[in-house]
Structure formats: structure tokens, C-alpha cells
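C-alpha cells for chain A. Residues wanted.
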């Protein structure tokens, strides 16, 4: 080689040497980094032969383990027992799918040369969402909390690539579903079956017979009343008598909503989702509108009917006070009756639909507000009906007292025919008032009883399911 070639080689070699020194090149540096990373993923422990060659039904590909990571166990026998307890999460399919690798990596980890493999942070974090039920019911034990000292970042683990048996099942009354909107609280992958589990099949049938009988009676009576008004509409279209037409029209339409469930296959369509779970939080974009339509028919008719009852008692009260005079107390007020009785229920109905608080119930066979979130029932059912009872009851009592006062204080001013007419009116008013007030009161009482017991029923149901 020439002297110029030797000089070039020496110069190039010096450049490489200086480059390595500046960049920190040292022999074996990459191997040292790998070794350091592996040391972070292992911890000194006492290795012992496996007494059980499988973890949660999966055969283990190694022969030694350590019990130091599972701080709630002192022996392999105890570890085996703890894993059996954790197996209860099979009833939460999505949780069971991701928690199996974590449990095996902690309770039965691989141990070699006096060092045990630590599970990775990814393995731990994968369980936090699907297994929220663990945190809610009992809380994660300290050794299963995703701290970096117990679950280091980027550590390879035997169980990360293993496919466990994901055949989790939903314990009745929960059913398997992939629709997140159907999941029961924190039990991902499971929803409440469509048939209300708090009632037996016989109780369902008894209630359906009751609804069919009384719904048919209601629709027949209201239809007869409406037909009577229509037949003589020219003379019947006068206030306050015509208010009875609107009251009966509301309950006639409401009865249709109640009886719609008896059409072939209608009840299942109304109260059940396509995946076989109970309809909750309707309306939703991926379900039919049958539930929302029945709700609108039943709720809007109920609210309009009870508000018309208030208008009727007010109209009677003011009309009785004007007896014997030429004053027309309802002149110009009837348009306000319609404004209030049709607009207030409309606003309430739209608000409920906007909040998506319509729930189905297999017992009643309809969709209504607040079957699940009973506080909404208090605001949208109990409060309006309670207000109707107070206001309507006040005007009803004042109306009867006014008639009684006219008869008692002015006996000489009334002819025998007029006195007889007042007696007849008081009797008819009393009968209708008691029946109408009783209906509203019973409706209020049923919702009131349901409201104050709903929390206890939900607690019992949750304890039963979980």
C-alpha cells in the first residue's frame, strides 16, 4: 500500500474513533440496555415448582412459579382458591376476556433463575374499563392496582400473546348483548332481559288480563260518551259541559295506547330491544319508534286529561257563582283552556323525549317515563298530578259549597223546579267529582308508591344479579 493510502486509512480510523467517543459508543452498550430493561421486568423471588399446570383452564408453558406477586395468598393452594373466586367474573363477559391474562400473570407468573416476571402496564390498564364493576363493588386490591412499580411499562409477558377462553356468560336475568346502550350498569356485555325479572310469568299474565279488562271498559265508556256528544254537538258544544267531551277524548286515546300491546307481537316490539333486552333510555337511533309512540299516546293523553279536569272544576266553580245573574264568567276564557291543556303536556312530552328517559316495562306492556330513573317520574308525573289534585280539589269543593250556599241562604228565591235542579246537579257533580278525583288520586298513589320503593327494589335487584 502506498504512503498516501496508509495515511487515508489512519485518518479514517481516527475519525471513527472520535465519533464513537463523542456518541458514547462502547462495546456491548445495546446488550447492557436490553439487560437493564429485562431487569426492570423481573424481580428477585423464590421460585417453586408448579403444583397446578394450568391457570383458569389454560395450560402453562413453564414449570416454575412464584407466589410473591399475589399478596393475598401464602401458598399455591390458596392461589388456586382465589382464582376460583375471581372466576365469578365469567358472568361479565367483556371483563372476563381481559382479566384472565392479568390474573394468571399475577397469581401464577413465570419464575426462572430466582427471578419472577412482572406483568406489563398494558396488561393491567386493559382491565380498568371493562372491569369497572370490580372497582364499584369491592375495589381493586393493592397488588392489582396499576402502579408502575408492580406493572412496569413495556415489559413482555408470557400471557400477553395467549388467547384465553372468552366464553363468558351472562347470568340470568341478564342476557348477552353487544349493544353498549343495553349493558346493565358496569356489567359490560350483559343487559337486563326484556321480561321484568321482579315478576313471575303468572304475575305478568294476571296484570295483562287486568289491563285488557279495564282498558276495554274504559275505551267503551269513553267512546259511548263521545258518541253522545257528537250526536247532539250543536247543543253539547257549550262550556262547561263540552269539557267533559275533551276529558273523555283524552282517556279514549290513552286507552288505545294501553291496549295496543294486545295486537299480535306488539308487546315485544314495544318494550323489547332487538337484542332481547329491556328498552331503557328511549328513544334511540338504532331501535324502532314503537316505544316512543306508545309513550306519547299514553303520557300526553294522561296529562291533558287531568289538566282538563282542573279546567272543568274551575268552570263549574265560576259558573255556579254567576247563577241568577246575566254575567257570563267563561266568556273569552275558553281559548286559554285549550292553550294550557294542550301546550303544557306537549312541553313535558318533548322534554322527556329530549332527555331520553322513556323506559319499557313488560308488566304494564307500555313505555313510560321514569321506570328506571324514578326521579324523572317524580318531576314529570308526581308533581303535575299532585298539583292537579290540589287545584282541582279546591275548585270542586268551592263549587259544591257555592251550590249549597245558594240553596240554603236563598230558599225563597228558588222555585221548586230550580231547587230540584240544583239538588240534581249537586248529586251528579258529587258522583262525577268523587269518581274523577278518585281516579286522579289512585293514579297519584300508584306512582307515589312506586317512587318511594324504587330505590329499595333496585338495590335488591342489583344484589340478586351481582
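Reply:
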Amino acid at each position: 500500500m502506498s504512503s498516501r493510502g496508509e495515511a487515508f486509512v489512519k485518518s479514517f480510523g481516527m475519525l471513527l474513533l472520535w465519533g464513537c467517543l463523542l456518541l458514547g459508543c462502547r462495546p456491548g452498550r445495546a446488550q447492557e440496555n436490553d439487560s437493564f430493561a429485562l431487569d426492570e421486568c423481573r424481580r428477585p423471588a423464590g421460585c417453586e415448582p408448579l403444583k397446578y399446570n394450568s391457570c383458569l383452564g389454560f395450560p402453562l408453558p413453564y414449570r416454575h412459579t412464584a407466589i410473591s406477586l399475589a399478596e393475598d395468598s401464602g401458598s399455591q393452594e390458596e392461589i388456586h382458591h382465589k382464582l376460583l373466586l375471581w372466576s365469578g367474573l365469567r358472568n361479565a363477559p367483556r371483563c372476563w376476556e381481559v382479566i384472565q391474562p392479568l390474573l394468571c400473570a399475577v397469581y401464577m407468573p413465570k419464575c426462572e433463575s430466582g427471578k419472577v416476571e412482572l406483568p406489563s402496564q398494558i396488561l393491567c390498564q386493559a382491565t380498568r374499563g371493562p372491569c369497572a364493576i370490580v372497582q364499584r363493588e369491592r375495589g381493586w386490591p393493592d397488588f392489582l392496582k396499576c402502579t408502575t412499580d408492580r406493572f412496569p411499562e413495556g415489559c413482555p409477558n408470557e400471557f400477553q400473546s395467549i388467547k384465553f377462553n372468552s366464553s363468558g356468560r351472562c347470568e340470568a336475568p341478564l342476557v348477552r348483548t353487544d349493544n353498549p346502550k343495553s349493558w346493565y350498569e358496569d356489567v359490560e356485555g350483559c343487559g337486563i332481559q326484556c321480561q321484568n325479572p321482579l315478576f313471575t310469568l303468572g304475575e305478568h299474565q294476571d296484570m295483562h288480563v287486568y289491563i285488557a279488562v279495564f282498558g276495554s271498559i274504559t275505551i267503551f265508556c269513553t267512546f259511548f260518551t263521545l258518541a253522545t256528544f257528537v250526536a247532539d254537538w250543536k247543543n253539547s258544544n257549550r262550556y262547561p259541559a263540552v269539557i267533559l267531551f275533551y276529558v273523555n277524548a283524552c282517556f279514549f286515546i290513552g286507552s288505545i295506547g294501553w291496549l295496543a300491546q294486545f295486537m299480535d307481537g306488539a308487546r315485544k316490539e314495544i318494550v323489547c330491544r332487538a337484542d332481547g333486552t329491556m328498552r331503557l333510555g328511549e328513544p334511540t337511533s338504532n331501535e324502532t319508534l314503537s316505544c316512543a309512540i306508545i309513550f306519547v299516546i299514553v303520557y300526553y293523553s294522561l296529562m291533558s286529561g287531568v289538566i282538563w279536569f282542573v279546567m272543568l272544576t274551575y268552570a263549574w266553580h265560576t259558573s255556579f257563582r254567576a247563577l241568577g245573574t246575566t254575567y257570563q264568567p267563561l266568556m273569552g276564557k275558553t281559548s286559554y283552556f285549550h292553550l294550557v291543556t294542550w301546550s303544557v303536556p306537549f312541553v313535558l312530552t318533548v322534554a322527556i323525549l329530549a332527555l331520553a328517559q322513556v323506559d319499557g316495562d313488560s308488566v304494564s306492556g307500555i313505555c313510560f317515563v321514569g321506570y328506571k330513573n324514578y326521579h324523572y317520574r317524580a318531576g314529570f308525573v308526581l308533581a303535575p298530578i299532585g298539583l292537579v289534585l290540589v287545584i282541582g280539589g279546591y275548585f270542586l269543593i268551592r263549587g259544591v259549597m257555592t251550590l249549597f250556599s245558594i240553596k240554603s241562604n236563598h230558599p225563597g228565591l228558588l222555585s221548586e223546579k230550580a231547587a230540584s235542579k240544583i239538588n240534581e246537579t249537586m248529586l251528579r257533580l258529587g258522583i262525577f267529582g268523587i269518581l274523577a278525583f278518585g281516579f286522579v288520586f289512585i293514579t297519584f298513589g300508584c306512582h307515589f308508591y312506586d317512587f318511594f320503593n324504587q330505590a329499595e327494589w333496585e338495590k335488591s335487584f342489583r344484589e340478586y344479579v351481582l
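The CA atoms of residues 400 and 427 lie 10 Å apart. The first helix runs from residue 3 to 23.
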